[in-house]
Structures are given as structure tokens and as C-alpha cells.
Specification:
Layout lengths: L2 E12 L7 E12 L3 E5 L6 H8 L7 E6 L2 E2 L5 H7 E4 L13 H11 L4 H14 L16 H13 L5 E5 L7 H18 L4 E5 L3 H7 L2 E6 L2 E7 H6 L4 H8 L3
Parallel strand pairs: 3-8, 3-9, 6-7, 7-8
Antiparallel strand pairs: 1-2, 1-4, 4-5, 9-10
């Protein structure tokens, strides 16, 4: 399969050169293929979120490369990068401006790209419906939505400019079990409709969700990749002792 993302020997060091030097990431390397869903699991502090924050240029790396569609992300403007990569965060309500209606927030990137107000509204209403929300949600404020509804709106916003990569950083962890399943079902339907037009990086503490949703999985511990491979192989027949203990603690 064609690679949409290549992460090569990524390092992130805090207090570099000092006695208290700490590696948040150490020689992290992996690929993401077109249309693939890659899970990243590990305990808190394992480096999962640090890795994707570097990929999305929210923070910088100490060394290493991130190649997006054959181009180093350092050579891509943030504006262009965010046309290719979008994130869905852990706390959906907090990811919206409470004083701005949902429709306007979802359509902001479309308006910035030059679409008219009328075209933007039509596309936003279609996106909301694709994500399981009726057109009526266009005029609602974030506080008028439940957590699950707000996460659906956040996914609609992320999809608005048709990114090639969707990063879900603990996107289901603040939701109850029933709503988690609904969000996973939504993401699966998006994958089915968009096929190779979208790839997903799915960070989660919930190994059961990763098992049912992701094609491949990376297991991280203390800033390093401990194990990676096809999800069914890693979860069912883990090779590394850390992976065995991690899985045994939750499954």
C-alpha cells in the first residue's frame, strides 16, 4: 500500500544537555498507509500523545523526521499541513468556542478556504448529517449538546476540509460505553465511505476498542515502541512481556 505518513527516528528530549534530561520519545519510527487505521496504545506518559503532537506540529521534535506524502512537514506551512491532518480531541465540549454556534465552528475552515456563506452552510449541514446530527444542530451552542453529540460535531469539523489523516487522541475516553460504541461505528462508516481517501491514527487506553477498530497497532512504553504489527496478532499473541502485562491488565 502507498504510505501517506512516515515517521523516522523521532526523538523528543526535555532539559536537553542537563542532568535532568528526559526522553519523552526515543527513536520512534512507523508508517501509515492510505486508508489504514493505526492504533497507538500504552500507559499514561508512554509518549503516545507526544508523538502525534509532533506529527501535527503542535510541538517540535528534538531530532528525526516526519514525512507527509513524500514531503518533510518542516517544509510545509501550518496552513497547508492542517489541510492534510486534522485532530479530534479527548474533551469535545472544550474543543469548541462556547460563544459560537456549532454550524459556524464546523464551517470555519470552509469559509477560510473561500466558500460562500451559502455553500458553507449547505456543506456543514451535509457533514452534520453524515456524522449523525440533524440540520437543527447547526444553530445550537456547544453547551446545548451532549458529550457524544459534541464529539460528532468535532468529527464533522475535522472532516470539513477533507484531510488525508484524522488523528483521534483519546477521542472516546470521556464518553460512556454506549456512546463510545456509537463513535466507533461512526468512524467505521466514514472509513467505509471515504476508503483510501482517509487514514486514521487512533490513540486510546481502551485496548478492546483498538482491537475491534484498528488494522495495526503500536505499543509504547517510556517513549519507545515496544511492539507493533497487525492488531489481531499483537493483541492475541503478544511477543513482549510489557505488552502481555498491559493486555492482561485490561482484557
Amino acid at each position: 500500500m502507498d504510505k501517506v505518513l512516515e515517521v523516522k527516528k523521532l526523538n523528543r528530549v526535555f532539559n536537553k544537555g542537563k542532568k535532568t534530561e528526559v526522553y519523552a520519545l526515543h527513536d520512534v519510527s512507523f508508517d501509515l498507509d492510505k486508508g489504514e487505521c493505526l492504533g497507538i496504545i500504552g500507559e499514561s506518559g508512554s509518549g503516545k500523545s507526544t508523538a502525534v503532537r509532533i506529527i501535527t506540529r503542535l510541538i517540535s521534535s528534538s531530532s528525526g523526521e516526519v514525512i507527509l506524502n513524500g514531503q518533510n512537514i518542516k517544509d510545509i506551512s501550518r496552513k497547508e499541513l492542517y489541510k492534510e491532518i486534522q485532530m479530534v480531541f479527548q474533551t469535545p465540549v472544550e474543543s469548541f468556542n462556547p460563544r459560537i454556534r456549532i454550524g459556524k465552528s464546523v464551517g470555519e475552515s470552509l469559509r477560510n478556504s473561500g466558500l460562500s456563506k451559502e455553500e458553507t452552510k449547505r456543506k456543514v449541514e451535509t457533514l452534520l448529517e453524515e456524522c449523525g446530527l440533524s440540520k437543527e444542530f447547526y444553530d445550537r451552542f456547544p453547551h446545548e449538546l451532549s458529550g457524544g453529540q459534541c464529539q460528532r460535531a468535532a468529527i464533522a469539523r475535522a472532516l470539513a476540509i477533507e484531510p488525508k489523516i484524522l488523528v483521534c487522541d483519546e477521542a472516546t475516553s470521556s464518553l460512556d460505553v454506549t456512546v463510545q460504541k456509537e463513535i466507533i461505528s461512526l468512524l467505521n462508516s466514514i472509513r467505509e465511505r471515504r476508503k483510501e481517501d482517509i487514514s486514521i491514527i487512533f490513540i486510546s487506553h481502551d485496548i478492546a476498542l483498538v482491537q475491534q477498530f484498528c488494522d495495526k497497532v503500536i505499543v509504547m512504553n517510556k517513549g519507545e515502541i515496544v511492539e507493533m504489527g497487525e492488531t489481531k496478532n499483537v493483541i492475541v499473541s503478544p511477543k513482549k512481556e510489557y505488552t502481555k502485562k498491559l493486555i492482561a491488565s485490561v482484557l
